[in-house]
Amino acid sequence: QSVLTQPPSASGTPGQRVTISCSGSSSNIGSNYVYWYQQVPGTAPKLLMYRNNQRPSGVPDRFSGSKSGTSASLAISGLRSEDEADYYCAAWDDSLSGSWVFGGGTKLTVL
Amino acid sequence: EVQLVESGGGLVQPGGSLRLSCAASGFTFSSYEMNWVRQAPGKGLEWVSYITSGSTIYYADSVKGRFTISRDNAKNSLYLQMNSLRAEDTAVYYCARGGWDAWGQGTLVTVSS
User: Fold this and answer.
1) Average pLDDT over every residue of B68-91
2) How does pLDDT run across B48-59, given as a tens digit for each residue?
3) Fewest C-beta atoms under 10 Å: which of A65, B37, B75, B98?
4) Which of residues 27-46 of B touch A (CB under 8 A)?
5) A38-96: per-residue pLDDT in tens?
6) Residue A26 in contact with residue A19, Cβ under 8 Å?
7) B105 CB near a chain A CB, below 8 Å?
8) At A1, is the pLDDT very low, low, confident or very high (cuts 50, 70, 90)?
9) How many CB atoms lie within 10 A of CB B2?
10) Is B60 on the interface with A (CB under 8 A)?
11) Which residues on adjacent β-strands are paired with residue A92?
């Protein structure tokens, strides 16, 4: 049971826009930055979004992030076949002694 | 080029110990926080431990008291000493730079008799 809640799956056709949600609480998303990662099976995760909505160099502007209250979203527009991967959200959690918490991951299928 | 290379994984019996290493290059290692994250087969990412540049340390509850994170800035290296290993510790272990912008390729730890 992950602290951050993501839908297990999402799908879309090439060119479509898809959104992946990440729900948390006041101790994590509500008070800290959200990070998003893309992982192609068999490879290491790759940072996709940091500080809620900042794209690292090299990440296409088709990817965008947002945060509102205790939830965050990753949007992918102009969906491409190479976007098929697992996507994870994460945030620092201030409860107890502090920890990083991850979502359970969302498998994105490009139909 | 920023590079992180993990090593030290392998097969270990339940109750055994293993020490993972992460060799860093291409950046000023001593200035960065570092993390260990693991991924059990077919499962999602799980944060394990985090050490700041000043060596303040945090652990996930699942490994607290069994795992120890450390760093050697002179050797540009991060370590994870894993004791009292359990079957549920079986996973690919990744080291990742603070800010999450660089990850190693991972090293597989299998705990089985």
Assistant:
1) 98
2) 999 999 889 999
3) B75
4) 35, 37, 44-46
5) 999 999 999 999 999 999 999 999 999 999 999 999 999 999 999 999 999 999 999 98
6) no
7) yes
8) confident
9) 12
10) yes
11) A100
